[in-house]
Amino acid sequence: MSTGTLPDIGSTVSFATENPKAALVAGIKYGAGIVIAIWMLFPIYWMVATSIQPEQVIMNWPPKFLFFNPVLDNYVTLFTEQEFGKFLFNSLVVAVGAVSISVLIGVPAAYSLSRMDVYGGHHIGFWILSTRMVPPLSIMVPLFIFLTDFGLDRSLVGLTIVHFLITLPMIIWIVKGFIDELPRSLEESAMVDGCNRIQAFREIVVPLVMPGIAAAAFISFIFSWNNFLLALVLTGGDTQTAPLVIQSSMGYLSINWGMLGAAGTVTVLPVVLISLALRNHLVEGLTMGAVKQ
Questions:
Q1: Crossing angle of helices 210-226/257-277, nearest 10°?
Q2: How many CB atoms lie within 10 A of CB 275?
Q3: Considering only CA atoms, which of 178, 160, 95, 170 is closest in space to residue 134?
């Protein structure tokens, strides 16, 4: 068996002996990293642990984090009595619909602002960014009146339109930054070889900025998936989304902690799975342009 990938213990000990100060600094960095990781991941673990504990165990003090008999009663109740699957599907429809339309429109718009001589392009770019500075609560009443006039209140279509209007500026601004990092000579060479502007965009630019598009789409998806305020005002009944159902586990006099943990775990799971599936694109996209060549 090859041992080429195994750490050289002797060299590690030698490094620590010859460079005690560097070894101490490295140990502090690794120790701090472990502490920060535990600090960030522990609430997620506590949520998952709460979701598989019976009510009497959840209310024990001190709380039990490790040694308990797990049960799935909270999940069974969540998907049978609460019909959480239906509301989870509503969240998926709204998030995927809004982000898909935003990507289809936002990526060409970002390319236009980055490469073409658009009149007032700098002002348009600032206006797009400024829409993200507006508190959603300040436009809630106009949005509700607008959707009501068109018969789209309390509907997934209306909520998708609103999420699209909010995620579109985010995707345009993020993707434009990635396109700005690309040298124009790549497209010019393609056009010299016979491509027109659209073909150069489709065949050259889009593949190169795909990690950035994936990162922008993922960030927009998280926003849409987790949004509570818009869904609270613009939906109702069977069109509610998952965050509203999670909030329903919190009553005026008591909180169903087991149901809250189960709903939170199920809601977080799709985002985790998507991030794992796109992790290569996300890492490349989030670090794209960080190092000057």
A1: 170
A2: 13
A3: 170
Domain encompassing residue 40: 9-76
In this structure, are 136 and 20 located in the same domain? no
For residue 255, the SS3 value is: strand
Q: Can you read off the two tokens belonging to residue 67? A: 């040694």
Give the C-alpha distances (Å, rounded to integers) separating 268 from 4, 57, 176, 230, 265.
Answer: 39, 23, 29, 19, 5
| Cα(37)–Cα(31) distance, integer angstroms | 10
Q: Please list the residues that pair with 16 across neighbouring strands.
A: none
Kindly list the distances between the CA atom of residue 185 and the CA atoms of 76, 178, 200, 201, 259, in Å, as whole numbers in the listed order: 58, 15, 11, 13, 56
Shared domain for 88 and 37, answered yes or no, is no
Residue 282 inside a domain? The answer is: yes
Helix (H, G, I), strand (E, B) or coil at 246: helix
Residue position matching structure tokens 């599907």: 89
| Residue 127, token pair as written in the block | 């206006």
Same domain, 25 and 90: no
Give CA–CA dist 233/253, Å, rounded.
Answer: 24
Mean pLDDT by 10 residues, the chain (293 residues): 48 59 82 91 87 78 76 86 88 93 92 79 74 80 87 88 89 87 84 84 88 88 89 84 82 78 88 81 58 44
Q: What does the alpha-carbon distance between residue 249 and residue 51 come to, in Å, rounded to a whole number?
A: 13
Tokens 């989304």 belong to residue: 241
Regarding whether 245 and 147 lie in a shared domain, the answer is yes
Q: Which tens digit of pLDDT belongs to each residue from 184-240?
A: 888 888 888 888 888 888 888 888 888 888 888 988 999 899 888 888 888 888 888
Rounded CA separation 231/293 (Å): 45
CA end-to-end distance (rounded Å), the chain = 39
Q: CB of 159 within 8 A of CB of 94?
A: yes
* Maximal C-alpha separation, the chain: 76
